[in-house]
Write a structure and sequence with these properties.
The complex is a heterodimer.
Chain A: H1 9-16, H2 22-33, H3 36-52, H4 72-77, H5 79-82, E1 86-88, E2 103-109, H6 117-120, E3 128-135, E4 139-146, E5 152-156, E6 164-166, E7 169-173, E8 178-179, E9 185-194, H7 201-210, E10 220-228
Antiparallel strand pairs in A: 1-10, 2-3, 3-7, 3-8, 4-5, 4-6, 4-9, 9-10
Helix pairs in contact in A: 1-3
Chain B: H1 7-26, H2 29-45, H3 56-72, H4 75-83, H5 97-107, H6 113-124, H7 129-136, H8 140-159
Helix pairs in contact in B: 1-2, 1-3, 2-3, 3-6, 5-6, 6-7, 6-8, 7-8
Classes of the chains: A alpha+beta, B mainly alpha.
């Protein structure tokens, strides 16, 4: 085992993150300039950083991850209030929290007043849809939709065909909310949690065909019908 | 903000590094993206795990390494790796960086945690012994010992 003589990725990462003091940053740049392989590596890491910057926001600036969901169990229990905006469909076996300690929530409304949507009974284009959950173990999830024009899509994650990782906890939000578009009518929204990451394509196909999904073994899901009308 | 920690800012500034290292360690884009999600979602849920006493890069190098090793040690992966023909990655003949990285990915799941971590930092991240020692909060001599132990372990495996 021999010592490396090139600049390490750690030092380059610290440079690219502006963690280094001016003299230390200058030293790293000078070392990189004096070594072709190091210069190439720095350019490669810089390209990687710039490409990553094009990704959508992580979603943590969305409604508070925990506090907002604290009111949800009461809301979900109050069917009379819930039906004003979100008519929960007859819950199947997979929707009822049992055994695994999984509870799934779904709500919509203006970005800063999502809970208030349950009071005025309206969902409009430009409102946000946000899923939440309580889980006693780390899992994976997704939010899927079939809109009023029967178009099927994944809201979360929006950029790939596999579920996102979800840490264990109570009343946590999914890592992103969704801005509802101007397609009016009845929209079927589904939030699903699984103990292992699952591909979304088969679920989306079934959602498109019949407006609901058959959850894979070990998974839990909740289906909600949203009525969206113009402002 | 999550508990005073600006996770979005951390994601913007360090997400590329977490993703790149996870790709290097796991050799899979999908798994690497899951690790990125997992790490930053965990920071949102439990911001206290980063206490600010170390640089964010130091903290994220450690949690990324830990998360990737956990995946590699998944039972299914472990069985697959054990079944593979494990080749030595330290020998008298210098390996190319690409060969060394591929070999390390195959065997990481089989190593004790401290040896695996040192091997990742040194062989995948290209850190010196001193840099590895800084991240692992130990002496450069101990790092040398860990790496020598790894080399010996797999040289022995090759012989057997």
């Amino acid at each position: 085992v021999t010592e490396h003589v090139h600049v390490s990725d750690l030092r380059f990462d610290r440079l690219l993150a502006d963690e280094l003091a001016a003299d230390a940053a200058a030293a790293v740049r000078a070392e990189a300039a004096g070594c072709a392989q190091c210069s190439e590596r720095l350019a490669e890491l810089t390209r990687g950083r710039d490409a990553f910057a094009q990704r959508p926001a992580f979603g943590v600036a969305q409604p508070p991850a925990r506090r907002w969901w604290l009111a949800m169990p009461a809301v979900l229990a109050a069917a009379a209030a819930l039906v004003l905006v979100l008519r929960a469909r007859d819950p199947g076996e997979s929707e009822r929290p049992k055994g695994g300690g999984i509870e799934l929530y779904l709500a919509a409304g203006p970005k800063d007043h999502m809970s208030s949507m349950y009071l005025d009974g309206k969902v409009h284009p430009g409102d946000y849809l946000q899923a939440g959950y309580t889980a006693s173990q780390v899992g994976f999830g997704a939010v899927l939709s079939r809109d009023g024009a029967d178009h099927v899509s994944a809201y979360v994650p929006a950029d790939r065909d596999v579920m996102v990782a979800l840490p264990a906890g109570r009343y946590l939000s999914f890592p992103a909310s969704t801005l509802l578009d101007d397609v009016l009518g009845e929209e079927h929204a589904i939030v699903i949690w699984c103990p292992s990451p699952r591909p979304l394509a088969p679920l989306l196909r079934e959602l498109g065909a019949r407006g609901d999904i058959t959850p894979p073994e070990g998974c839990k899901h909740r289906t909600v019908v949203i009525y969206k009308d113009a402002r | 903000m999550a508990g005073g920690l600006d996770v979005e800012a951390l994601y913007r500034r360090y997400g590329h590094s977490v993703l790149r290292r996870a790709r290097q360690i796991l050799g899979s884009d999908d798994d690497a993206n899951d690790v990125v999600q997992e790490i930053f979602a965990n920071l949102v849920a439990r911001p206290g795990q980063f206490d600010g006493r170390s640089a964010p890069s130091t903290f994220l190098y450690a949690v990324t390494t830990h998360a990737c090793l956990a995946r590699l040690r998944d039972r299914r992966n472990r069985l697959r790796l054990i079944d593979e023909q494990v080749k030595p990655w330290v020998s008298d003949v210098a390996q190319s960086p690409a060969e060394a990285r591929a070999a390390v990915q195959r065997i990481l799941a089989l190593l004790p945690d401290d040896e695996a971590t040192a091997a990742i930092y040194h062989h995948l991240d290209g850190m010196s012994h001193a840099e590895v020692a800084e991240l692992m909060a130990c002496s450069p001599r101990h790092v040398g010992n860990l790496l020598a132990r790894v080399a010996e372990r797999f040289a022995h495996k090759e012989a057997s």
